[in-house]
């Protein structure tokens, strides 16, 4: 088996804040390889039971895969995010709420139209860190410094951070007439695949933009996932 993961190289950056997310991705890669090892071990174990004449061969191969699995598990332990001083410090942080904007696949939907317009505006903006914009909910609960997600059901969530809030009376004529503030958003910070969102037990689709309850209290797995962006 050929693995490109290098435990020593990864461990050298485990305490740097900006690399926590990258390390988590390496851990997920380890999990995939470890699962392959377990499958190979079970495969050789089954063959040993059904083919007595090649028992020694399968036993030898099974032991080699077990040895590889043990090494991978050891490497995984070294990369455990909870062992990082940065993560220990972050355990006390509370990133607040999350504002979510479901984007319909219906091209005639107002949300879809607004989202497409924003995509085009940002892509045509020569500024490297061009800001995105979006209407808050009618309750205007979003707060500067909290996270925001464009929710594409059954696909992914694109995560931004709220960097400014423009009062509804100053937001311009290219938005609806509803008394909603205009959220100014950072460039996309990460994309959470749908399968991961399900594993995080993230809140599901609603009809319009809304702000969740405190993530640390109501959606702890989502809170800890977004904490990696801090």
Overall description:
With 230 residues, the chain is an alpha+beta fold. The chain is 43% helix and 16% strand. The chain is built from eight helices and seven strands. The chain has helices spanning 7-11, 20-50, 55-78, 85-90, 110-123, 194-199, 215-218, 220-227, and strands at 98-102, 132-135, 147-152, 156-166, 182-185, 190-193, 210-211. Strands 1, 2, 3, 4, 5, 6 and 7 form a seven-stranded mixed beta sheet that branches.
- Give the overall shape, derived from the CA principal axes: elongated
Number of self-contained structural domains: 2
Number of helices: 8
End-to-end Cα distance: 36 Å
CATH topology of the largest domain: ph1033 like fold
Write down the Rg.
23 Å
Main structural class? alpha+beta
What's the story with the biggest beta sheet? 7 strands, mixed
Helix percentage:
40-55%
What are the segments in which pLDDT stays under 50 over at least 5 consecutive residues?
Answer: 1-16, 81-86
Helices and strands in order, then pairings?
Layout: H1 7-11, H2 20-50, H3 55-78, H4 85-90, E1 98-102, H5 110-123, E2 132-135, E3 147-152, E4 156-166, E5 182-185, E6 190-193, H6 194-199, E7 210-211, H7 215-218, H8 220-227
Give structural attributes.
disordered N terminus, alpha+beta, 230 residues, 43% helix, 7-stranded mixed β-sheet, ph1033 like fold
